[in-house]
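Chapter summary example.
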Amino acid sequence: MRLAFVAADTVEAQGARETLARRYGACAPENADVVVPLGGDGFMLETMHACQSSGLPIYGMNLGTVGFLLNAYRPDDLPERIATAQKVTLYPLRMRAERQNGEVSHALAINEVSVFRETRQAANLAIAVDGVCRMPELVCDGVLVATAAGSTAYNLSAHGPIIPLGAGILALTPVSAFRPRRWRGALLDSRSRFAIDVLNGRKRPVSAVADSTEIRDVRRVEVQEDRSVRFTLLFDPQHNLEERILKEQFIP
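The structure predicted for these 252 residues follows.
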């Protein structure tokens, strides 16, 4: 089994990479059978984006803080752990963001696509789903579309729902909604197409963020799941991602 070890820019992660490379050998990601990221969830997302075109399976080990998308770090029996790991397939969101000046940018999001106000003034947004305007005016700090994998991240902090893997659902969650004040978001089919139009964007500028890619001063953001891109993550059976997401729903 050819392994490619990549590590976050921390002393602990870099030291672990050197230790594992000496013990198991190492190769470049383009020549590997499995990529092994060492770091936290943020670095795991960076690695997934970097491996987007290769389609290589990814077995992450946590040397960060939360490590929701990673396995526990243990240097022993690594090939055996990878061989018996369970596979989870994730599909990202594709964001198309049009700026006020007409420029168009595209980006992928594994966790969520978010739209945020840029200044002290609240954002003024209109939201359409599959071509039908469902929210003609939302005054808020922002709104996000989250995948099941990302539902326990920023979406949960914004009081959005936790979504089981395989449910075929995306979460549409407002951030500090001011009007309508009681709106808490929606659960929608993963095949849904979202369009978020920025109302009065020159006075109330808005940014769009797909994971770590930010596009500023947008006037329209379109989001939909991209089934042409898939990520394969490997998890130890006792730390399966689906079980972790399920457990999150029972944490008081």
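To summarize the output: The chain has a mean pLDDT of 95.
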